[in-house]
Amino acid sequence: MHTKSSTPWLYLGPALAILTFFLIYPSVNTIYLSFFGKNSRSFVGAKNYVYVFTNRTMLTALRNNALWVAIFVPSTVFLGLIFAVMLDRVKYETVIKFIIFMPMAISFVGASVIWKFVYAYRPASAPQIGLLNAFRGIFHFIPLPWLIERPLINNFCLIVVGVWVWTGFCMVILSASYKSLPKQLLEAARIDGANEWKVFWKIIFPLMIPTITVLITTQVINVLKVFDIVYVMTNGNFGTEVIANRMYKEMFNFRNFGRASTIAVVLLLFILPIMLVNLNRFRRQGAK
Amino acid sequence: MRKKRLTKTISRMPLHTIVILVALIWILPAMGVLVTSFRFPHDVASTGWWVMFKNPFNSAQYTLENYIAVITQCGIGRAFLNSFIITIPATVLPIIIAAFAAFAFAWMRFPGRQSLFVILVGLLVVPLQMTLIPILRVFNRLGLSGTFPGIWLAHTGYGLPLAMYLLHNSVAGLPGDLFDSAEIDGASSFYIFFRLVLPLCLPAIASLAIFQFLWIWNDLLVALVYLGGAPSVAPITVQVSSLVGSYGQAWELLTAAVFISIIPPLILFFSLQRYFVRGILAGSIKE
After folding, report:
1. Does A106 reach chain B within 8 Å, measured CB to CB?
2. A46 part of contact set with chain B, CB < 8 Å
3. Total domains, chain A
4. Which of A9, A106, A112 sits opposite B265 (nearest CB)?
């Protein structure tokens, strides 16, 4: 198009102004603040960074984020893959996919309350109103306080909420990729006598690895930022703290802006390499 | 022939069983919330919600009083309204601003175009935690914290990189001849933008709008930070999470509140499913 040299800036102006004020300036400022104390007045050097990697609660938070990555990411991707392949073989595929994808529409706050009710706990003498403890009751097991039972059970229970929400997302993406596989190839293998198990592991799975890799990186980034589920269900108590919730607490409960900034920078440093790998791949795909 | 079909059906029984079981696991938690929200408080406290299966059509066990209570006494009515007041402008603003920018990036020539675009879209890597403290401080000084315009602007900033990236893809895909002939006919760039670019990109805008709407409607962190907990401005997510703190055991109230909060996203989901899935997939690189 032929325009005056000033016209593009007229169109870009609002975006530039907003992005500068809401993303560029604050990011730079947060990095700067991470080297200052509680009220951002005195320079403290790397003290906040030492705190982040030595304080006990912070270490719990880091450990839990690692736990989330280790359980949440493979679970959502693997379940998504199994559902995608399995549902392709039934006629009522759309209905079931619809059900599994539905939690994506619900807020994490909503999902957390929904699951808090599933985990509801009362002493063994009282009637159990939570689904899970009532289920245990059928087999005469004593009820468990799921969200207090540390450190593995309660963290696992929180992760289940995330898996419930995000599996549908993985399923939809993997299903699209599965349906685009060359069907003759699978048929040929079956005619040659390969069983379904072999067809899955030797043909389907290798062909879907590019999609799976993208999903894994996306899910790792998602899970590093996990906040809402933990904030609503336990608020990080009983050994369930995570990085993002810790930052919120440093900011609002303890008013320690130096430490809060540092936690944000550490989060960025975790996310950045994964994001760069992702962006690099987008660029390569664009070049093809 | 019939026998063959029968054996096929039988051999597929395990598959069907697993599929139905999975669907049940996925739907039961949400169903528990839905059922509980219509039960009487004393029933909720003394029996599990599943007892209603014994006699599901006995309407005497259902009530609307929980909904009336949360809307009038727990601030859910006000919060529901606030959520709309927050979400609608914060959905429209970034899309318009991003469309302007995408148009310039795709069809106008100016120095530094390529690198500027890469930098701005590259801001996708910034987790919003990186921005909270400085923006909150500026907001406090300007009197914008705890106000709707403040959160509209914040969500606009957070939504822009993704919106620009997606709209650029579809604006750049429009046929350039169209703009050339419009220019020859004397159309201004504004005319071209509003009469050609926006209408032609409507499908992309629809998907993006759904994604942005959901993201903001379901947001908790941004609202907590910039609005605080004041009931006059708090959106429904903030209000529900504070009810969890104050009414932790009153499940009939919590479940009713949650159900109200998920009605608008569910309506979007049911009515615009195609755009919905597309929007979520497109937005996945942001999350």
Report:
1. yes
2. no
3. 1
4. A106
Give yes or no for residue A198 having a pLDDT over 90: no
B280 and chain A in contact, CB less than 8 A: yes
Residue A169 belongs to a domain with what CATH number? 1.10.3720.10
Does residue A125 sit at the B interface (CB-CB below 8 Å)? Answer: no
CA of A256: which chain B residue's CA is closest? B133
Going along chain B from its start, the domains and CATH numbers come out as: 2-63 (no CATH), 70-283 (1.10.3720.10)
Instruction: From chain A, pick out residues whose CB is under 8 angstroms from the CB of B18.
Output: 86
Q: Average per-residue pLDDT in chain A?
A: 89
Report the chain B residue with the minimal C-alpha distance to residue A224. Answer: B127
CB of B21 within 8 Å of a chain A CB? The answer is: no
Say if A30 falls within a structural domain. Answer: no
Contact A146/B at CB under 8 A: no
A228 within some domain: yes
Q: Which residues in chain A are closer than 8 Å to B21, comparing Cβ atoms?
A: none
Rg (CA), chain B: 25
54-93 of B, contacting A, C-beta below 8 A: none
pLDDT in tens, B175-218: 888 888 888 888 888 888 888 889 988 888 988 888 899 999 99
In this prediction the ipTM stands at 0.89
DSSP string, chain A: ----TTHHHHHHHHHHHHHIIIIIHHHHHHHHHTTB-TTS-SB-TTHHHHHHHHSHHHHHHHHHHHHHHHHHHHHHHHHHHHHHHHHTTSTTHHHHHHHHHGGGGS-HHHHHHHHHHHT----TTSPP-SHHHHHHHHTTPPP--TTTSTTHHHHHHHHHHHHHHHHHHHHHHHHHHHHTS-HHHHHHHHHTT--HHHIIIIIIHHHHHHHHHHHHHHHHHHHHT--HHHHHHTTTTTTT--HHHHHHHHHHTS--HHHHHHHHHHHHHHHHHHHHHHHHHHHHHHH-
Q: How confident is the model at residue B287 (pLDDT cuts 50, 70, 90)?
A: very low
Q: Which of B247, B237, B39, B21 is nearest to A129 (CA)?
A: B39
Distance from CA of B233 to the nearest CA of A (A): 18
B138, B224, B268 member nearest A105 (Cβ) = B268
Looking at the domain assignment, is residue A183 inside a domain? yes
Q: Is A21 on the interface with B (CB under 8 A)?
A: yes
Separation between Cα atoms, residue A184 and residue A86, nearest integer Å: 18
How many alpha carbons fall within 13 Å on the CB side of residue A126?
Answer: 14
B189/A1 CB distance under 8 A: yes
Residue reference for tokens 């590019």: A210
Tens digit of each residue's pLDDT (9 = 90 or more) over A226-284:
999 999 999 988 989 999 999 999 999 999 999 999 999 999 999 988 888 877 776 66
- Residue B248 predicted with pLDDT over 60: yes
* pTM of the predicted model as reported, rounded to 2 decimal places: 0.90
A103 at the B interface (CB within 8 A)?
yes
Q: Does B100 touch chain A (CB under 8 A)?
A: yes
Question: Does the pLDDT at position A138 exceed 90?
Answer: no
Q: Is residue A11 part of a domain?
A: no
Closest chain A C-alpha to B135 CA, distance in angstroms:
6
